[in-house]
Amino acid sequence: MGRIPARSCGDRRTGIGREPSRAALARVRRGGLGAGARRPCLPRSRVIAICFLLVTALACAGCQEERIVAYHHPFEGLPNVTGGLATGPVRVNAMDPRIVPEDRLFIEHEDGSRTLIMRSGRHLMVHIYNALADDDADIFAEQILSSLTRAEYVERGLDPRQALADLRARQRDMLALFNLMPEGENSAGAMWTRLGRAGPDNLPVVRLSISGPQTRDLGWNFMDMVMEKGNWRLRWFGRE
After folding, report:
1. Contact of 74 with 125, CB cutoff 8 Å
2. Which of 49, 70, 220, 235 is the 20 to 30 A CA-CA neighbour of 8?
3. CA 121 to chain centroid
4. What is the pTM of this model?
5. Looking at the domain assignment, is residue 135 inside a domain?
6. What is the residue range of 109's domain?
7. Does 44 reside within a domain?
């Protein structure tokens, strides 16, 4: 009876392959398959599937979603504010805690009160404008104004709610600044500078500013912010 013809990967029907030579057995005992030896192979379909999964995993390992979106200037339609609808590629990182939908910048409670969410400079800018538009001195003093600035008003014998009236007197300067950095710290030309820590609680203070020829006539070109309990609050505005 003749031998069963050998296959490169063994006979799949019987599991029997070509008899190894003595030299091949000796190489295996020494721990190697030899230069001309062939390893057991996988079916072609399985190899293709594994390669596809590996390529897909490598391609998406550090990727960010990029898509074309349309956005409005956050202060569009206000006096002294220019700019409108714009489109362009925007990188969206779902892990960025600053990305909050515009309709979720506050938490509304059953009693009708609101807790503001200000994870970024832009969020703070939106709430500052809303407080001015609503003439809400209470929410401005309690949630938007930093504890450092509130303390300064008290030290001067003033009600911290007076800060909203003081800001209204400089509203034109504020809107001119906001107009040049409508996306807050993500605006072209905007700079984010750490100023250190301040106050008895050692709170971090940063400066969001903008520079360039377009700022020559601005009354204010920066907004200082303080991080308190996970939200940015207003220290005040100024000119460098």
Report:
1. yes
2. 49
3. 12
4. 0.60
5. yes
6. 97-238
7. no
